Amino acid sequence: MHLHIKELITKQEMLAQFPVMQYLYTNFSLEKYDAYLTDMIPNNYKQVAVFEGDLCVGLSGLWSGTKLWSGKYLEIDNFIVHPDHRKKGVGKMMTDYIDIIGKETNCTMIVLDAFTGNYNAHRFYYNQGYAPKGFHFLKILNENGLS
C-alpha cells in the first residue's frame, strides 16, 4: 500500500472527496457541503487528505486561528479514515502531518473535538499525544440545521 498526503486548498479539490465526508455525515448532501465550503474556505479552512493512488482513504479539515488564552492554534475538524483502511496508519500519517503544519506555522497547540461516546477516537487521540483540557459546551438552536 503506497500512501501519499496532499493539502486540499480549493473548493473543487475538497468537493471531489465528498464520498469520504459521507462516512462521517451519512445524510450530508453535496449541495450543503458546497455551501458550507463557500463559507469556510475564506476563514482559514483547508483539508489534508491521504491517497492510495487516486483513492482518498483519509481526510481531515483544518482551521487556524488565535485565541487570547492560547495564541495561535490549529484545529482538526472532521477527521475521517475510510472504513476499509482503518488500523493501517492512515490516521497517524494525518496527525503527524498536521503536527508539522502546526510547528511550521508557529502554533502553540493543536485542538480538536471528539464526541463523548466516540471511544475509538478517544483512544486514537490519546495515543497521538492529545489529552482533554476542558469541556466543549454547546447549545443547539436549530436541530434541523445539524449535519
Write a brief caption for the model.
The chain is of the alpha+beta class. It is built from five helices and five strands; from the N terminus they run E-H-H-H-E-E-E-H-E-H.
User: What is Rg?
Assistant: 15 Å
Instruction: Provide the helix percentage.
Output: 25-40%
Average of the residue pLDDT scores = 95
Total E-strand runs: 5
Report low-confidence residues grouped into runs of 5 or more.
none
Strand percentage lies at 25-35%
Strand order of the largest sheet: 1-2-3-4-5
Distance between the termini: 32 Å
Q: What would you call the shape?
A: globular
**Could you say which structural class the secondary elements and strand pairing correspond to?**
alpha+beta
- The tally of helices reads 5
Order of helices and strands: EHHHEEEHEH
- Largest pleated sheet: 5 strands, mixed
3D architecture notes:
The protein has 147 residues and is an alpha+beta fold. Helix content is 30%, strand content 29%. It has 5 helices and 5 strands, in the order E-H-H-H-E-E-E-H-E-H. It has a 5-stranded mixed β-sheet with strand order 1-2-3-4-5. A hairpin with a 3-residue loop joins strand 3 and strand 4 (71-81). The longest helix has 15 residues, at 90-104. The mean pLDDT is 95.
